[in-house]
Design goal:
The complex is a heterodimer of chains A (482) and B (216). Chain A is of the alpha/beta class and 482 residues long. Chain A is built from 17 helices and 19 strands. With 216 residues, chain B is an alpha/beta fold. Classes of the chains: A alpha/beta (482), B alpha/beta (216). The complex binds iron/sulfur cluster (SF4). Iron/sulfur cluster binds next to loops of chain A.
């Protein structure tokens, strides 16, 4: 019978199907970070259970780490916040006690778990991948079945190498045509979430197909799958093609020699069959997608950069009107206002959505030879990993950001969730390349507008949301003085 | 896990759609390495007027008198009534731990986000999906009646309203069984260790590269 990509991955990992509809699914790779693992290791200790298969697990500290070079130099002991330090120390201790491989804080390969994973080849096509983090959906870009889990499931995966799952339904999102210049995977993701809503993908595995998707690089596909969870889907998928295989060819943990050849044969089968049936589907014209900006407090609250904040009268019902009213109040915006009148005073380029080398190149292309607006008083660029940082520095991108008046930081989650000192102040408004604009996400009272790296760079230069061409054609080279 | 059979509980409202887990437990509290003690920080930004930190003494913080969970009439509530897509966003199980620690053992909503739903069930909290119309009715009744209570029976899969009306709901059979008996998932899965081992053997033969040690 014709199968979808998700069906194939499911079948290849199905240990046991039970009569009640649940199934045991085998987990190939388990990524671990400090925030959602301590209680799971504690559970193992209390129940005197060992880790089932040590080589399946790879840990890295990322959420809580300082991104200041001065604080990183002294290692864990030099971190100023004792509560964060204890959590990071606990990760190190647990990995040592359970013999789990960990990339330590001072390792040049340290980075955000979802950036480090594919970069090391710790995530590969055809794998099942889990992590105690909802953005594990990122790895679907590799044609892997990857999803976020809670801490009880982290413990379950550690102890049994399996998860108890129910099969999801299949949802195909076809993006046709070709993206216009200045439109990125982030804009596609925001457009999709805007279209199907934050619950539109609940219960589904999303597969992204179509020429606009196959035209994306691996980095772009990761950005897109990363945000599948913002549409409510635990996982997003892109079929394996030559782009995928070329990406993994030289990764440190990728199979070598004869294993590579066997792997490639299996990976090449990781597509939905032509006549596979999906339970749901939509088609989007990729060539019509414009650069997007989120205006509200949910990732579905988005508009094109030339669009407007919606009006009360456009809302379908009372709940929607209440939602809009609350979002406008929190965001300090008025109904119907043009998106281009919104003026961020902070800029954050980073997070597992947009902190890979390609993202930094896109932002730097807009910022090269320009300075950020004097109205922008906080501008952070946080590379996703030590390797991204080194690559960016080799290309001179760090200097572009510094010359523009931005800060160049050490890798970590940083202001994506503000667990460390990188955060917005109450009322502060930020153009952010991260994935969530929930109330308080980037700091209590902070206001987040989700955009692509190029759009964040454009907003940094102009002090308001504009399309990238407007900056490039503005002649503004030295706005704000030198 | 605590077993769940029946509850006769006071209902409190969370009258907004898309309540995310960041709102349920803000990030600064995720630094804890413990599983307990999150109750005082459930809906922290809505409940208090100041910004709480991981080491704040919550009993001394200024309470937001306008937030329903702080109203005297909802004190002691064990059932939360909510709107669609409850628990969306981050996978943090802290949200379920905070609900449990606060004293909620049941949430009723028209829909739930996947990861939260699964986390809740693993912590003895029953998410009940009712139709949007039924949830609307419950909100109306809740606002009209002081001390509005519901009786939830997991064995019978029913919700009993104060006027005697009885609604039924659906719940995953496996999850229901675990909740009723207070069973631990890991123990159940480990009973199948032989099956897992023989699968693993076949998987290793098919995909040997997945079983190499991680050498960094
Ligand atoms: S960058 Fe943000 S979304 Fe990604 S793992 Fe870190 S906190 Fe989560």
């Amino acid at each position: 019978m014709a199968q979808t990509l998700y069906d194939k991955l499911w079948d290849a990992h199905l240990v046991e199907q039970r009569e009640d509809g649940t199934a045991l699914i085998y987990i190939d790779r388990h990524l671990i970070h400090e925030v959602t693992s301590a209680q799971a290791f504690e559970g193992l200790t209390l129940a005197k259970r060992p880790v089932w298969r040590k080589s399946a697990n790879l840990a890295v500290p990322d959420h809580n780490v300082s991104t200041l070079a001065s604080e990183r130099r002294g290692g864990l002991a030099a971190l100023p916040d004792p509560v964060s330090r204890l959590q990071l120390q606990t990760l190190d201790d647990n990995c040592a006690a359970f013999d789990v491989t960990e990339i330590l804080l001072d390792d040049p390969r340290q980075g955000i778990v979802h950036v480090m994973g594919p970069e090391q080849g710790a995530v590969l096509p055809g794998m099942t991948v889990v992590c105690g983090d909802s953005h594990t959906s990122t790895h679907g870009a590799a044609g892997a079945l990857a999803h976020g889990i809670g801490t009880s499931e982290v413990e379950h995966a550690l102890a049994t190498q399996c998860l108890i799952q129910r099969k999801m339904k299949n949802f195909r999102i076809e993006v046709t045509g070709h993206l216009q210049a200045g439109v990125t995977a982030k804009d596609v993701a925001l457009a999709i979430v805007g279209r199907i809503g934050t619950a539109g993908g609940t219960g589904y595995a999303l597969e992204f197909t179509g020429t606009a998707i196959t035209g994306l690089t691996m980095e772009g596909r990761m950005t897109l799958c990363n945000m599948a969870i913002e549409a409510g889907a635990r996982c997003g998928l892109v079929a394996v093609d030559t782009t995928t295989i070329d990406y993994f060819r030289d990764k440190p943990l990728a199979p070598k020699g004869e294993h590579w050849e066997r792997a490639e044969i299996w990976w090449r089968t990781l597509q939905s069959d032509a006549d596979a049936e999906f339970d749901a589907g939509i088609e989007i014209d990729g060539s019509a997608i414009t650069p997007h900006v989120s205006w509200g407090t949910s990732p579905e609250m988005v508009a094109g950069v030339h669009g407007h904040v919606p009006r009360m009268v456009d809302m379908a019902d009372e709940t929607a009107r209440n939602g809009l009213a609350r979002a406008l109040e929190y965001m300090g915006l008025s109904e119907g206002m043009p998106i281009s009148d919104i003026q961020p005073t902070a800029v954050f380029i980073g997070s597992c959505t947009n902190s890979r080398i390609e993202d930094l190149r896109e932002a730097a292309a807009v910022l090269r030879g320009r300075r950020i607006s004097p109205t922008v008083d906080k501008a952070l660029v946080v590379p996703g990993s030590g390797l991204v940082k080194a690559q960016a520095e080799a290309e001179g991108l760090d200097q572009v950001f510094l010359d523009a008046g931005m800060e160049w930081r050490e890798p970590g989650c940083s202001m994506c969730l503000a667990m460390n000192a990188d955060r917005l102040l109450p009322g502060e408004r930020c153009a952010s390349t991260s994935n969530r604009n929930f109330e308080g996400r980037q700091g209590s009272g902070g206001r987040t507008h989700l955009v692509s790296p190029a759009m964040a760079a454009a907003a940094a230069v102009m002090g308001r949301f504009v399309s990238v061409d407007e900056v490039l054609s503005s002649g503004i080279e030295t706005r704000g003085g030198i | 896990m605590r077993a769940f059979t029946q509850v006769d509980g006071l209902v409190a409202p969370m009258d907004r759609a898309n309540v995310d887990t960041d709102l349920m437990v803000p990030k600064q509290f995720l630094k804890s390495i413990r599983r307990s003690g999150f109750g005082p920080n459930l809906f922290d930004e809505l409940r208090y007027l100041d910004e709480g930190e991981a080491d704040s003494d919550n009993s001394r913080r200024p309470i937001n008198p306008e937030f329903p969970l702080n109203f005297p009439r909802y004190q002691g509530a064990s059932i939360l009534l909510a709107r669609e897509n409850f628990g969306c966003g981050s996978s943090r199980e802290h949200a379920a731990w905070a609900m449990e620690d606060y004293g909620f053992c049941c949430v009723i909503a028209p829909s739930f986000a996947d990861i939260f739903q699964s986390n809740a069930l693993k912590n003895g909290i029953l998410p009940i999906t009712l139709s949007a119309l039924q949830v609307d009715t419950l909100f109306e009744r809740l606002y009209e009646e002081d001390k509005f209570r519901l009786r939830v029976d997991l064995e019978a899969k029913t919700v009993l309203l104060p006027d005697g009306e009885l609604w039924s709901f659906d719940v995953d059979a496996f999850r229901r069984d675990c909740l009723l008996k207070g069973l631990d998932d890991i123990g159940i899965t480990l009973e199948r260790a032989d099956v897992i081992r023989s699968f693993e053997q076949r998987h290793r033969e098919r995909f040997p590269w997945l079983f190499e040690d991680i050498v960094l």
